[in-house]
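[step 3/7] inverse_fold.run input=structure_tokens len=812
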């Protein structure tokens, strides 16, 4: 066979093999599609074509009249319904969070229930109030769970209703029971029955599980309602009981009315165990608040430590400075005690309803930290007084936890209050002569301390033991707290001063801040915060916080009407407060640009326009935020602006003119802060550029407040628009026995030695007149500081006269 024939035969074989492979692939693909269609039939496989091919005739003539299309559609809807139910139940309802957390809530409710059994004979209002808050929180959680479970249960009941509707469908029953239909669709009918069984089982178990879970949640919910009603009823009874006569007068006590020592010990142990459980529960539930408190403490400690380390590493610290590393009283490189004082003082902002044991522990930590700080920083006499305050604090704290009105206890409390009154008088006399931060508030609280202890004495004598305990504990807590707050203010102030020292050391823009003004603002803010903290502690100790808070909230948020306009007092106060704060900020923002009353730094002059622009932005932004926060409708603002327009037309033209002129001055910048300007017969430095008016300080020291409209419309001469250079004239008269050239050279030589003249422009020495009596010369020289014009002129003349005298030239 020739070579060519062999190649043709081989080529034909390749074509046959390729054709067979293509046919096989097509066959396999078609077969796989058939399998896939068989496996993933997402609807009923009751095909109309199959019924027509078999000429299906049902035995029930009524079914034939309905039509095979309608019957198959009905079967298909049943199939889709069962698929939907099975898919939903296979995914399940997300109840894991409820099932996992329900036991913990049950345990918390048991803790509250167990401790409430103590308070039938024990007064612990703080814990009762805390339980009320906790139960409200638990109720909110249980309400959310009930809503979720109700929705799930409603879905499950809807699925059951759909299945019951399918079960009761008579046409569907007859169709499935028909022998002709069954013989044709036997496989499909069996598949439908299998899905029905799965759906029936899953819905039944799902409804049962959700119902059981819903019953458990509802049971806990109603338990919290019962406990809360019980607590509020006890609080009402305690309020009435504490005001009225609880126990016999102290001089009329009968032993039959007292609690035996054995019962007292038993009750005390039970109360102690209850307090421990409450405290564990509180820390477990409010761990995030404690975590944030610790984070604040770490940030404060690291901030102080970092600044101390920076200053210690700097060898250029001025030891003669007013503030040194050794001049701080309460902060140090490792400021653990100072941090504890700060944390104990700001703790009320994290939770205003802590348990009694938590309050006692935090106050004890505060007293302990203050004792170590006062040991080295307070005078010996005041430190002894503080030690007495610490002892009284421990004694009153223990008396607050004693739960039985025995004669011994009442006598002990009476003596303790009497000693406290005497100590309070001595303390008040000693503290008035001291120089302690926050002294005015400490004096006021010292008087309150004496009054509360006197009130406790009378309440104890006349059988109002609950009020006596409340007054006693409140007195010592308020006194120790206000002293702690005075140290709190000083700690924050010292930490801020430490930061200013670091900023001055590093230089840069922060070194130019006017920290004296910022520190004054910080002091006012700290005083306001301290008063708020003390007021919260004081009202909580007197069990008046909730009542006062509710009353103030109602007063501020109650809708009021004036004509057709509805408003709330809280919104008005919020509007005024925001506008006031924005005004304070725009007044003090100059401190952030380094402006002071006595310095004229070139950087301050450069930032003058930014300062004015920042003030304008703060005022506008503050007004807009105040409007948004107060909830004032925009249509009311439109009315106000319309009325304002009428006011402008009638009598506010000058004010608006000044405001607009101020904005123009900000953007046009004809002069800046620190420029030396002349307006009419007024000449001086620009001290401040405001929105309505600007200030200028004259050479004599007088400050002039000028409306911006006058500055914009008047003829302003700016001596320092581009630079601070100005040309001055120095008149000199000398003896004519010397030549003009000799005198001129001597003057020029002396002027070149001065640092105040502009080196780039040589001085001009001009001959004015020459006669047998004198040579009159006028010296024209440029100096580089117009703000010191007269002093520089005097110094230059003095230097010239001195230099001429050394050369033997007589000045006339």
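[step 3/7] decode complete -> sequence:
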């Amino acid at each position: 066979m020739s070579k060519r024939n062999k190649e043709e035969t081989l080529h034909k074989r390749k074509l046959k093999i390729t054709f067979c492979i293509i046919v096989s692939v097509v066959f396999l693909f078609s077969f796989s599609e058939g399998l896939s269609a068989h496996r993933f039939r997402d609807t009923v496989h009751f095909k109309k074509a199959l019924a027509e091919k078999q000429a299906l005739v049902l035995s029930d003539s009524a079914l034939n009249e309905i039509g095979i299309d309608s019957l198959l559609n009905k079967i298909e809807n049943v199939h889709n319904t069962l698929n939907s139910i099975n898919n939903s139940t296979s995914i399940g309802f997300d109840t894991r969070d409820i099932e996992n957390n329900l036991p913990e809530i049950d345990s918390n409710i048991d803790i509250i229930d167990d401790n409430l059994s103590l308070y039938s004979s024990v007064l612990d209002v703080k814990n009762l109030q805390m339980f009320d808050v906790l139960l409200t929180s638990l109720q909110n959680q249980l309400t959310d769970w009930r809503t979720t479970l109700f929705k799930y249960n409603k879905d499950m009941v809807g699925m059951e209703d759909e299945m019951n509707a399918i079960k009761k469908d008579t046409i569907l029953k007859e169709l499935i029971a028909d022998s002709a239909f069954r013989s044709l669709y036997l496989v499909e009918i069996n598949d439908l029955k299998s899905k029905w069984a799965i759906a029936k089982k899953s819905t039944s178990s799902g409804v049962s599980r959700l119902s059981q879970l819903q019953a458990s949640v509802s049971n806990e919910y109603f338990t919290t309602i019962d406990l809360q009603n019980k607590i509020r009823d006890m609080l009402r009874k305690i309020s009435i009981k504490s005001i009225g006569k609880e126990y016999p007068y102290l001089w009329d006590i009968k032993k039959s009315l007292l609690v035996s020592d054995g019962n007292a010990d038993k009750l005390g142990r039970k109360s102690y165990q209850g307090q421990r459980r409450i405290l564990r529960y509180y820390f477990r539930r409010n761990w995030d608040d404690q975590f944030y408190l610790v984070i604040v403490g770490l940030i404060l400690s690291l901030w102080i430590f970092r600044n101390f380390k920076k200053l210690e590493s700097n060898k250029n610290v001025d030891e003669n400075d007013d503030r040194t590393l050794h001049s701080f009283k309460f902060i140090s490189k490792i400021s653990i005690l100072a941090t504890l004082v700060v944390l104990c003082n700001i703790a009320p902002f994290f939770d205003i309803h802590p348990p009694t044991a938590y309050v006692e522990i935090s106050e004890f930590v505060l007293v302990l930290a203050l004792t170590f700080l006062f040991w080295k920083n307070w005078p010996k006499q005041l430190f002894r007084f503080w030690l007495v305050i610490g002892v009284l604090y421990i004694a009153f704290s223990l008396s607050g936890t004693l739960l039985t009105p025995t004669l011994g206890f009442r006598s002990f409390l009476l003596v303790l209050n009497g000693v406290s009154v005497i100590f309070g008088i001595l303390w008040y006399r000693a503290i008035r002569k001291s120089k302690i931060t926050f002294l005015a508030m400490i004096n006021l609280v010292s008087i309150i301390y004496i009054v509360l202890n006197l009130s406790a004495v009378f309440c104890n004598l006349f059988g109002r033991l609950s009020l006596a305990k409340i007054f006693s504990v409140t007195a010592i807590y308020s006194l120790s707290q206000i002293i702690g707050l005075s140290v709190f203010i000083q700690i924050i102030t010292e930490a801020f001063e430490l930061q200013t020292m670091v900023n001055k050391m590093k230089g840069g823009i922060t070194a130019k801040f006017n920290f004296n003004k910022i520190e004054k603002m910080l002091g006012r803010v700290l005083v306001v915060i301290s008063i708020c903290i003390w007021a919260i502690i004081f009202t909580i100790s007197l069990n008046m916080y909730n009542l006062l808070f509710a009353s103030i909230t109602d007063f501020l948020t109650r809708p009021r009407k004036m004509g057709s306009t509805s408003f709330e007092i809280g919104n008005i106060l919020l509007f005024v407060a925001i506008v006031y704060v924005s005004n304070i900020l725009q007044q003090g923002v100059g401190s952030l640009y380094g402006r002071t009353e006595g310095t004229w730094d070139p950087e301050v002059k450069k930032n003058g326009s930014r300062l004015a622009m920042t003030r304008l932005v703060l005022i506008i932004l503050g007004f807009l935020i105040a409007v948004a926060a107060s909830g004032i409708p925009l249509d009311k603002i439109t009315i106000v602006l319309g009325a304002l327009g009428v006011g402008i037309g009638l009598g506010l033209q000058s004010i608006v003119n000044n405001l607009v002129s101020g904005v123009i001055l900000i953007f046009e910048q004809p002069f800046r802060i620190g420029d030396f300007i002349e307006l009419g017969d007024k000449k001086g430095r620009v001290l401040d550029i405001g929105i309505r008016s600007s200030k200028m300080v004259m050479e004599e020291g007088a400050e002039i407040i000028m409306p911006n409209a006058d500055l914009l419309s008047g003829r302003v001469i700016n001596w320092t628009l581009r630079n601070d250079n100005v040309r001055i004239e120095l008149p000199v008269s000398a003896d004519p026995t010397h030549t003009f050239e000799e005198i001129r050279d001597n003057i020029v030589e002396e002027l070149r030695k001065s640092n105040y003249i502009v080196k780039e422009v040589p001085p001009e020495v001009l001959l004015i007149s020459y006669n047998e009596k004198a040579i009159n010369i006028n010296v024209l020289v440029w100096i580089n500081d117009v703000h010191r014009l007269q002093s520089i002129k005097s110094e230059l003349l003095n230097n010239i006269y001195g230099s001429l005298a050394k050369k033997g030239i007589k000045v006339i």
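[step 4/7] annotate
The chain has 27 helices and ten strands.
Residues 186-243 form the longest helix (58 residues).
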